[in-house]
Every structure is written in C-alpha cells, then in structure tokens.
TrEMBL record:
Gene it is expressed from: DNASE2
Entry protein name: Deoxyribonuclease-2-alpha
GO biological process entries: apoptotic DNA fragmentation
Family classification: Belongs to the DNase II family.
Chain ranges passing through the membrane: 25-44
Length: 386
C-alpha cells in the first residue's frame, strides 16, 4: 500500500521471443539457490558505423568469469556466448556503446542519470532510474537510450570501469537506437521517473529543438494528473517500444495499476515483494508473482539477490524492464518501465532460460540500418540495439 505513494516507472517491450523466454523461466520455479550474476542485454541491431549506436561482440570465447550470451537478428535466432566479459573496458558491448560517454567525443552529446552515480555519494532521491542518452550533434539523425540497473557505474569522461561489487548480483541492460524525432517522447518518460542527472553535455541548440529535454534538465515541475507518462515509439530496428514514467504523485503501483491496466492483459512479474502485495487472481486481468527462487537451467535465482526487475505481458509478445519492487511502499516512489514487443527476442529468451549458467550476460539483437554515431554498439563495434 505504501508504494502507491511512491513514484514509479516502467518501460515495456512487446516481443514474442523475449516474452516466451521470460515466461519459460517464470514457469520453472523450485527451491533455494541463486545464480551469482545474470546480466540481460536486449539489443535491437542496427548496422551503422560508430558512436551513438548499440554495439555487440566479436566472436571470441571469453574466460568463464563475467561472461555473457548474445543473439543477433538473423534468419535463425540463436544464442551464442558473448565474445567479451562485462569487465572488458575496451571490447565489451557496453564499453563500445558508451565510448562517447566515458571518453570525450564532441560530436555526441550526452545525458546520464542515476540514483547512485559513480564518484558521488548515493542520492536521496527516491527514483531508482539509471540510464544514458547519446545524441548525435551533427546532421546525422541518430540517438541511443541505454538503460541499466548498476550502481556506481559509468563515470562521465572517466573511462569504462565495471564495479566488481556488482558481479555477485543480477543486472539488466537495454540499449535502443532511435531517430531524434522521438527525443521528446523519451525525455518526457524519463522526466516522470524523477531521475537524478549527474552528467549533461547537451547543447543549447538541442535543448531548443526538444523542449522535453530542456524540461528534464531543468527539473520542470509536473502538475497535471494522472502523473503518469506513457510513450510509444519504434526503434531504428522497427521494434515497438512503450516507455512508462510513474511520478511520485501518481501514487500508483507499477504492476497492478499501470502495466496490467495499460496493456489490458495478464502479467507475470519478477521483482522483490512483500507479504501484503499478493498475486491478483480475480478480475478480467490477472497479476501473478513468479515464484522465487526461479529455476534457470538447473540453477535457481533468488528474487532478493537479483537487481533485475521485469514483467511478462501475456498474449502481447512483450517484456517490460522495470525499476520498481512490488510492495506497498513503492506506490510512493517514482518508477520506470521500458517494454519491448518482438517475437524473435521473446522466443530467444524462452530458449536461453534453459541454458543459463553461473555468470551470464544476455544480449538480444535485432537488425536495422542507420548511418553513424549516436547508437548502441556490440563487441564487434557494429551498431545494434541491445
């Protein structure tokens, strides 16, 4: 109940492949044990050259430490081990994608937000949203939105450094490359999440072109009910995205009130919960908590040891990556959800759910084509969403 008074956010992805993967994991629930680290990357590939785009791996098998799995959109979607470990500061997908952020690049403007940024004490802000925007400042129409769950991660102009303390936890990453025409939609959804902005190099020209970016940076007050933002747009890979920002004043539960009702569908959720927040089995649409621990390929993952939070939207081929717990107090906390609809990604998750081992990073990639810069990168420095 307390969570109704807490702002929240949800970003929902509609994709059958991703949905089926999460659903398979949700149905395989047994006793106690957990996988030390599960890093989930959802990538929608775009074949651009460099900079503001998503990047994937190069094909070499890494040591069995902070390892990862990756999938690219081909005729036959299959999982393969990522070429690099997540702590590889030069070649891993995250490192490549965030080069314009961790090192100086005058052509790419950036904005980063986190409740626990690197080189700063944890913020008192209630929002748990973490992410980076990359925007090409030239004539190229390219932007990327990187969403993650890792504290003390990604110092602006500080080089790439993986926080070793987070290796024992589960984490999730999402990188989306999109046209700059959608910047206002993305910025407004982020603004409703009430983030703490710790890095900003956006030019006055960009802020004049995109008023919601300006509102995000200046912290313009939100005064209009229902204090919930619901943005819809497509990535350059033509993946349908729905992004939610839940303001504190909405006093809404991200799962029971926002996602279940907005999608008009049954949902299954993986997020820390309290005794008062039950599964909802009555009514037209149901909400079911995935039992913890959850079985993944013979190992069990504990909900409390996992920083990743997500929801499956049944019959919609959609997976939502979220920031909120499913507790009464979260209604008073801002929240975010990014939801992806994609049958291939959904099916890929269904397959990988039976293949997970001890330390895993999961990247899902779907191809499209853009020109240069503001996009997500893989380990091969190819432009992809993940």
């Amino acid at each position: 109940a307390a969570d109704k008074r807490t702002p929240g956010a949800a970003v929902c992805l509609e994709n059958a492949g991703v949905y089926n993967a999460f659903r398979t994991a949700a149905l395989n629930c047994i006793e106690i044990m957990f996988i030390p680290i599960i890093l989930i990357f959802i990538s929608l590939n775009c074949c651009t050259a460099q900079d503001a785009t998503c990047k994937d791996d190069d094909g070499n098998i890494p040591p069995n430490v902070e390892s990862s799995n990756i999938i690219k959109s081909t005729a036959d979607l299959v999982w393969a081990q990522s070429a690099r470990n997540v702590n590889d500061g030069r070649e891993h997908s995250i490192a490549r994608t965030l080069v314009p952020f961790t090192a100086n690049n005058g052509d790419i403007k950036v904005l980063a937000y986190s409740d626990d940024p690197p080189n700063l004490p944890p913020r008192n802000e209630k929002s748990k949203a973490k992410g980076v925007l990359l925007i090409d400042n030239r004539d190229t129409d390219a932007a990327a939105w990187f969403v993650h769950t890792v504290p003390k991660f990604l110092a602006h102009l500080g080089g790439y450094s993986w926080p070793a303390a987070e290796t024992a936890k589960g984490h999730m990453f999402l990188c989306l490359a999109f046209n700059e025409a959608h910047l206002n939609l993305v910025a407004k959804a982020i603004r409703y999440q009430e983030p703490f902005i710790y890095a900003n190099s956006l030019s006055p020209e960009l802020l004049n072109q995109h008023v919601e970016l300006s509102n995000l940076i200046t912290g313009a007050q939100i005064r209009v009910t229902p204090f919930l933002e619901h943005a819809k747009f497509a990535t350059k890979a033509a993946a349908n995205i729905q992004a939610f920002g839940k303001h504190t004043k909405s006093y809404s539960d991200m799962y029971a009130r926002v996602l279940k009702n907005k999608f008009a569908a049954n949902i299954r959720i993986w997020a820390p919960s309290d005794a008062r927040s039950k599964s909802i089995c009555k009514g037209q649409y149901q909400l079911r908590k995935i039992a913890s621990p959850m079985q993944l390929a013979g190992s069990l993952v504990s909900r409390e040891a996992d920083s990743a939070k997500w929801a499956l939207v049944e019959q919609k081929n959609t997976v939502c990556l979220t920031t909120n717990d499913y507790t009464v107090g979260e209604k008073k906390i801002p929240g975010a959800a990014v939801c992806l609809e994609n049958a291939g990604v959904y099916n890929a998750f269904s397959f990988i759910a039976m293949k997970l081992t001890e330390t895993i990073v999961i990247l899902v990639l779907s191809k499209s084509c853009t020109a240069q810069v503001a996009t997500c990168k893989d380990d091969n420095n190819a432009a992809v969403d993940w």
